[in-house]
Specification:
The chain has 4 helices and 3 strands, in the order αβααββα. By secondary structure, it is of the alpha+beta class. The chain has a 3-stranded antiparallel beta sheet. Strand 2 and strand 3 form a beta hairpin. Helix 2 crosses helix 3. The chain is globular and about 30 Å long. It starts with 5 loop residues before the first helix and ends in a 5-residue tail after the last helix. The mean pLDDT is 92.
Length: 65
């Protein structure tokens, strides 16, 4: 997936852990580690981890913008 802007992010309900990681400045492995530690908010769908965009935006302080 190419780089996503905040405006494009807002059009999604969830994103993958690697995409969320890019928004907080983490690589793929570090993003999954943060998700497993509870530092990134995730929804578990079977084996898949998805990051809810509203919670990600709140974490980034971008939810009111």
């Amino acid at each position: 997936m190419d780089e996503m802007t905040i405006e494009e992010l807002r059009r999604h309900l969830t994103v993958s852990v690697p995409v969320a990681g890019r928004f907080v400045g983490l690589g793929r492995d570090a993003a999954f580690a943060a998700a497993h530690r509870g530092e990134l908010p995730v929804l578990r769908m079977g084996r898949r981890l998805l990051v809810p965009v509203p919670k990600l935006l709140a974490l980034l302080g971008a939810d009111a913008a």
